[in-house]
Amino acid sequence: MAEKISFEAPRGMRDFYPEDMVWRNKVFDAFRAAGEAAGFEPYDSCVVESYELLARKAGEEVGEQIYHFFDKSERHIALRAEMTPTLARMVAQRQAELKFPLKWTTIAQCFRYERMTKGRKREHYQWNVDIIGEDSILAEVEVIGAACDALRRMGLDSKDFKVHVSSRKFLGELLEKSGIAAEKHAQVFLALDKRGKMPDTEIAVMLKDGGLNDAEVAATFAIMDTKSYEECPELKELFRLAEIAGFADCLMFDISVIRGLSYYTGIVFECFDTAGEFRAIFGGGRYDNLLTTIGGQPTSAVGLGFGDVVVTELLKSRLGTDAAKVKKGVAVGFMFPEQRDAALKLAATLRKAGEKVNLSLKSQKPKKFFGAADSSGASSAVFLGPDDVEKGVAKLKNMETREEVEIKL
């Protein structure tokens, strides 16, 4: 007897039923609108990459999470875990032809084999916003500003979220002033990025494994208490420009923001809900060396990755589980088969006029039709009976107010 097939999606992967798509569309629409408003050009790429490209970050956590396999020609390929390596490949491929700076954006489907927790799946969509080839701090302002704009378009404001901002360059300078050599900084960053996910005693072990002595470990933890960015010119300028751009209320300095990926070189940032209920909403920073690691020419870059899972949970928590349901369009129904043609003609006429129309596929009684129209999310409804067709007029009912207006068929 054949084994029964499970109707569940593979563990960690997602099905999107219509009620889920309502939320996905709300989030994606905000992504696209914010990207377009800030002048970012859309792009896309294949979801499968060469394993060699993604493994350039070997030794980091994400390297262990890649879905990879050999195809029928024994090529080692993988599903992308994030979009930035692909972006770097695409830019390097045409680096001599492209006109910089680039302002590119995409919504990419990504896969990571990892332990699932609240706000983390093995499949997710990630909005990427990147500026390539610009050294100015204005690049950071444009990228972070677009992300804050997207959150506002979704219905949130600075009371709901804060973008925690720091600088790996600034942190490196503080470490050097404390006597911690530059060659130890990579291990320090990697260890400190785990802070909050494991006890400080384990962080201390990681630091010692990276070559730090007891005094250097103590100095590292002391630096984590830094509350001011006044000694960091680039952060001062970022906050000043954010004030002009109108989103300084969304920012806060946080020296503990490290970003685990080693390709970050300057300002880094992560966004969290103010109640502290969820994982990071988005994160990113400046990554001036990534193109050179895959063989491209040195090019400055700033970008962020903004996943759809956490922000959807946050929106449901703050706005309510029905907040994405917006009544829209017209439902058209008919009482008997004899009115079907008139209903179809009316639907076609309304669609040509730009209306969204949900046409009933069979005759119904009025009560059943209006009940279905209400649950379908239509903002208005027209139900045709014999008298309506004979007179050439019908009544358009507002599903919210229940008011009716007469329309010609």
Structural summary, described in words:
This protein is an alpha+beta fold. Helices cover 36% and strands 21% of the residues. The chain has helices at residues 18-37, 51-54, 84-93, 138-153, 168-177, 185-192, 200-209, 214-223, 233-245, 290-293, 308-319, 340-352, 366-376, 386-391; strands at 41-42, 48-50, 68-70, 76-79, 102-111, 123-132, 161-167, 251-253, 267-273, 282-286, 301-307, 330-334, 357-359, 380-384, 393-398, 404-408. α4 (138-153) crosses α9 (233-245) and α6 runs antiparallel to α7 (200-209). The longest helix is centred in the first third of the chain and has 20 residues, at 18-37. It is elongated.
* Helix/sheet category: alpha+beta
Average pLDDT, rounded to a whole number, is: 93
- Strand elements, count: 16
- Biggest pleated sheet: 8 strands, mixed
The coarse overall form would be: elongated
Poorly predicted sequence stretches spanning 5 or more consecutive residues: none
Helix count?
A: 14
* Fraction in beta strands: 15-25%
Strand order across the largest sheet: 1-5-6-11-10-9-7-8
Tell me the series of helices and strands, N- to C-terminal.
Answer: HEEHEEHEEHEHHHHHEEEHEHEHEHEHEE
